[in-house]
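Aim 2, interim progress: modelling of the guanosine-5'-diphosphate-bound target.
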Amino acid sequence: MIKIIEAKFLTSSASPADWPDPSLPEVAFVGRSNVGKSSMINSLAGRRKLVRVSKTPGRTRMINYFEVALQTNGTAHRLRVVDLPGYGFARVAKSERERWDEMISTYLEKRQNLQVVVSIIDAEIGPTHADQQMLDYLSELRPGVLVVATKIDRLPKAKRKPRWKEIAAQLGLSPDRVVPFSAVEGIGAEEVWEALLQTVRGGRASG
Ligand code: GDP
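Predicted structure of the complex, ligand included:
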Protein backbone atom coordinates (compact mmCIF):
# COMPACT_ATOMS: atom_id res chain seq x y z
CA MET A 1 0.00 0.00 0.00
CA ILE A 2 1.25 3.43 -0.97
CA LYS A 3 0.31 6.37 1.19
CA ILE A 4 0.98 9.93 0.07
CA ILE A 5 2.06 12.01 3.03
CA GLU A 6 2.68 15.28 1.28
CA ALA A 7 2.69 16.68 -2.29
CA LYS A 8 3.54 20.25 -3.10
CA PHE A 9 4.66 22.46 -5.98
CA LEU A 10 8.32 23.37 -5.57
CA THR A 11 9.45 25.56 -8.47
CA SER A 12 9.61 26.00 -12.26
CA SER A 13 12.72 26.28 -14.39
CA ALA A 14 13.38 27.55 -17.90
CA SER A 15 17.14 26.99 -17.84
CA PRO A 16 19.72 24.98 -15.86
CA ALA A 17 20.48 28.05 -13.74
CA ASP A 18 16.99 27.69 -12.24
CA TRP A 19 17.17 23.95 -11.56
CA PRO A 20 16.53 23.29 -7.87
CA ASP A 21 19.41 21.81 -5.86
CA PRO A 22 19.89 18.12 -6.74
CA SER A 23 19.40 16.90 -3.17
CA LEU A 24 16.48 14.55 -3.91
CA PRO A 25 16.00 11.83 -6.54
CA GLU A 26 13.87 12.96 -9.48
CA VAL A 27 11.34 11.11 -11.60
CA ALA A 28 10.47 12.93 -14.85
CA PHE A 29 7.25 12.61 -16.89
CA VAL A 30 7.22 13.07 -20.66
CA GLY A 31 4.46 12.76 -23.24
CA ARG A 32 2.64 14.33 -26.11
CA SER A 33 0.60 17.44 -25.28
CA ASN A 34 -2.85 16.36 -24.12
CA VAL A 35 -1.81 12.75 -23.48
CA GLY A 36 -3.03 13.04 -19.87
CA LYS A 37 0.25 13.89 -18.10
CA SER A 38 -1.20 16.48 -15.70
CA SER A 39 -4.06 14.16 -14.78
CA MET A 40 -1.58 11.33 -14.19
CA ILE A 41 0.64 13.40 -11.90
CA ASN A 42 -2.39 14.60 -9.93
CA SER A 43 -3.64 11.05 -9.64
CA LEU A 44 -0.22 9.74 -8.49
CA ALA A 45 0.03 12.54 -5.93
CA GLY A 46 -3.52 11.92 -4.74
CA ARG A 47 -4.34 15.60 -5.34
CA ARG A 48 -6.99 16.84 -7.71
CA LYS A 49 -5.30 20.09 -8.66
CA LEU A 50 -1.60 19.81 -7.93
CA VAL A 51 -0.92 20.35 -11.60
CA ARG A 52 -3.66 22.57 -12.93
CA VAL A 53 -5.37 20.70 -15.71
CA SER A 54 -6.43 24.07 -17.12
CA LYS A 55 -2.86 25.26 -17.28
CA THR A 56 -1.49 28.76 -17.14
CA PRO A 57 0.21 29.32 -20.52
CA GLY A 58 3.57 30.29 -18.99
CA ARG A 59 4.04 27.22 -16.85
CA THR A 60 3.38 24.71 -19.60
CA ARG A 61 6.57 25.95 -21.27
CA MET A 62 8.70 25.39 -18.23
CA ILE A 63 9.87 22.38 -16.28
CA ASN A 64 7.75 22.11 -13.13
CA TYR A 65 9.01 20.41 -9.99
CA PHE A 66 6.86 18.87 -7.27
CA GLU A 67 8.04 17.36 -4.02
CA VAL A 68 6.30 14.20 -2.86
CA ALA A 69 6.65 12.36 0.44
CA LEU A 70 5.15 8.89 0.57
CA GLN A 71 5.14 5.76 2.60
CA THR A 72 5.22 2.09 1.53
CA ASN A 73 4.93 -0.64 4.14
CA GLY A 74 6.30 1.63 6.82
CA THR A 75 9.22 2.94 4.72
CA ALA A 76 9.25 6.68 4.02
CA HIS A 77 10.37 8.07 0.66
CA ARG A 78 10.82 11.62 -0.49
CA LEU A 79 11.36 12.46 -4.13
CA ARG A 80 10.59 14.99 -6.82
CA VAL A 81 8.11 14.55 -9.61
CA VAL A 82 9.25 16.57 -12.61
CA ASP A 83 6.71 17.61 -15.24
CA LEU A 84 8.43 18.21 -18.59
CA PRO A 85 6.63 20.28 -21.25
CA GLY A 86 4.51 18.16 -23.62
CA TYR A 87 5.87 17.56 -27.11
CA GLY A 88 4.19 17.45 -30.52
CA PHE A 89 2.00 20.51 -30.07
CA ALA A 90 1.44 21.61 -33.67
CA ARG A 91 0.62 25.26 -33.15
CA VAL A 92 4.00 26.50 -32.00
CA ALA A 93 6.64 28.29 -34.02
CA LYS A 94 9.75 26.34 -34.97
CA SER A 95 12.02 28.64 -32.97
CA GLU A 96 9.95 28.05 -29.87
CA ARG A 97 9.89 24.31 -30.45
CA GLU A 98 13.67 24.33 -30.71
CA ARG A 99 13.89 26.17 -27.42
CA TRP A 100 11.64 23.54 -25.77
CA ASP A 101 13.62 20.68 -27.29
CA GLU A 102 16.80 22.15 -25.95
CA MET A 103 15.32 22.73 -22.49
CA ILE A 104 14.04 19.15 -22.29
CA SER A 105 17.12 17.48 -23.74
CA THR A 106 19.46 19.48 -21.49
CA TYR A 107 17.50 18.35 -18.47
CA LEU A 108 17.30 14.70 -19.60
CA GLU A 109 20.97 14.52 -20.53
CA LYS A 110 22.57 16.52 -17.73
CA ARG A 111 20.47 16.17 -14.62
CA GLN A 112 22.53 14.03 -12.22
CA ASN A 113 19.73 13.19 -9.77
CA LEU A 114 17.27 12.14 -12.52
CA GLN A 115 16.69 8.44 -11.97
CA VAL A 116 13.67 7.41 -14.01
CA VAL A 117 11.74 8.83 -16.95
CA VAL A 118 8.07 7.93 -17.30
CA SER A 119 7.08 7.95 -20.96
CA ILE A 120 3.31 8.34 -21.28
CA ILE A 121 1.44 6.76 -24.20
CA ASP A 122 -2.27 7.08 -25.01
CA ALA A 123 -3.61 3.51 -24.67
CA GLU A 124 -6.38 4.13 -27.16
CA ILE A 125 -4.23 5.76 -29.85
CA GLY A 126 -1.10 3.66 -29.20
CA PRO A 127 2.47 4.90 -29.64
CA THR A 128 2.74 7.70 -32.21
CA HIS A 129 5.81 8.40 -34.31
CA ALA A 130 6.78 11.18 -31.88
CA ASP A 131 6.39 8.79 -28.92
CA GLN A 132 8.62 6.26 -30.64
CA GLN A 133 11.23 8.94 -31.34
CA MET A 134 11.18 10.00 -27.69
CA LEU A 135 11.62 6.38 -26.55
CA ASP A 136 14.48 5.77 -28.97
CA TYR A 137 16.16 8.91 -27.66
CA LEU A 138 15.57 7.94 -24.01
CA SER A 139 16.99 4.46 -24.58
CA GLU A 140 20.35 6.07 -25.32
CA LEU A 141 20.43 7.98 -22.04
CA ARG A 142 21.37 6.89 -18.56
CA PRO A 143 18.07 7.05 -16.59
CA GLY A 144 15.70 4.06 -16.55
CA VAL A 145 12.48 4.30 -18.56
CA LEU A 146 8.98 3.21 -17.60
CA VAL A 147 6.14 3.31 -20.14
CA VAL A 148 2.68 4.09 -18.81
CA ALA A 149 -0.33 3.63 -21.13
CA THR A 150 -3.01 6.04 -19.96
CA LYS A 151 -6.75 6.54 -20.73
CA ILE A 152 -7.14 2.75 -20.62
CA ASP A 153 -10.73 3.43 -19.42
CA ARG A 154 -11.58 4.40 -23.00
CA LEU A 155 -11.33 0.75 -24.00
CA PRO A 156 -13.93 -1.88 -23.11
CA LYS A 157 -12.67 -4.06 -20.25
CA ALA A 158 -12.16 -7.13 -22.45
CA LYS A 159 -9.88 -5.18 -24.81
CA ARG A 160 -7.60 -3.68 -22.16
CA LYS A 161 -5.21 -6.54 -21.60
CA PRO A 162 -4.75 -7.38 -25.29
CA ARG A 163 -4.19 -3.67 -26.03
CA TRP A 164 -1.59 -3.33 -23.29
CA LYS A 165 0.29 -6.38 -24.64
CA GLU A 166 0.02 -5.00 -28.16
CA ILE A 167 1.55 -1.67 -27.07
CA ALA A 168 4.43 -3.48 -25.36
CA ALA A 169 5.02 -5.53 -28.51
CA GLN A 170 4.92 -2.42 -30.73
CA LEU A 171 7.56 -0.83 -28.52
CA GLY A 172 9.65 -4.00 -28.33
CA LEU A 173 9.24 -4.15 -24.54
CA SER A 174 8.16 -6.92 -22.24
CA PRO A 175 4.63 -6.29 -20.84
CA ASP A 176 6.03 -5.76 -17.33
CA ARG A 177 7.75 -2.57 -18.59
CA VAL A 178 4.36 -1.11 -19.57
CA VAL A 179 1.82 -0.13 -16.91
CA PRO A 180 -1.87 0.37 -17.83
CA PHE A 181 -3.30 3.51 -16.24
CA SER A 182 -6.45 5.59 -15.96
CA ALA A 183 -6.80 8.85 -14.06
CA VAL A 184 -10.58 8.62 -14.59
CA GLU A 185 -11.07 5.14 -13.16
CA GLY A 186 -8.16 5.33 -10.72
CA ILE A 187 -6.22 2.43 -12.26
CA GLY A 188 -2.46 1.92 -12.07
CA ALA A 189 -1.20 4.48 -9.53
CA GLU A 190 -0.03 1.81 -7.09
CA GLU A 191 1.79 -0.10 -9.88
CA VAL A 192 3.46 3.06 -11.20
CA TRP A 193 4.75 4.03 -7.74
CA GLU A 194 6.02 0.51 -7.12
CA ALA A 195 7.90 0.45 -10.41
CA LEU A 196 9.32 3.92 -9.74
CA LEU A 197 10.41 3.20 -6.21
CA GLN A 198 12.13 0.02 -7.33
CA THR A 199 14.31 2.09 -9.64
CA VAL A 200 14.83 5.09 -7.40
CA ARG A 201 17.81 4.55 -5.18
CA GLY A 202 18.45 6.86 -2.29
CA GLY A 203 14.76 7.71 -2.22
CA ARG A 204 14.40 6.75 1.39
CA ALA A 205 13.85 9.51 3.85
CA SER A 206 13.89 9.38 7.59
CA GLY A 207 10.90 11.69 7.89
P1 GDP B 1 -1.64 16.90 -20.54
O1 GDP B 1 -1.74 17.96 -21.59
O2 GDP B 1 -0.80 15.76 -21.02
O3 GDP B 1 -1.19 17.41 -19.20
O4 GDP B 1 -3.10 16.26 -20.38
P2 GDP B 1 -4.27 16.54 -19.32
O5 GDP B 1 -4.05 15.80 -18.05
O6 GDP B 1 -4.53 18.00 -19.25
O7 GDP B 1 -5.47 15.77 -20.05
C1 GDP B 1 -5.83 16.03 -21.40
C2 GDP B 1 -7.26 15.57 -21.62
O8 GDP B 1 -7.37 14.17 -21.45
C3 GDP B 1 -8.26 16.19 -20.61
O9 GDP B 1 -9.47 16.44 -21.29
C4 GDP B 1 -8.43 15.10 -19.57
O10 GDP B 1 -9.68 15.16 -18.92
C5 GDP B 1 -8.30 13.83 -20.42
N1 GDP B 1 -7.76 12.71 -19.63
C6 GDP B 1 -6.63 12.71 -18.88
N2 GDP B 1 -6.41 11.49 -18.31
C7 GDP B 1 -7.44 10.71 -18.69
C8 GDP B 1 -7.80 9.33 -18.43
O11 GDP B 1 -7.13 8.56 -17.71
N3 GDP B 1 -8.94 8.86 -19.06
C9 GDP B 1 -9.71 9.65 -19.87
N4 GDP B 1 -10.79 9.10 -20.43
N5 GDP B 1 -9.40 10.95 -20.12
C10 GDP B 1 -8.30 11.47 -19.55
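The helical segments are 37-45, 57-60, 94-110, 129-139, 157-171, 189-199. Residues 43 and 186 are 7 Å apart (CA to CA).
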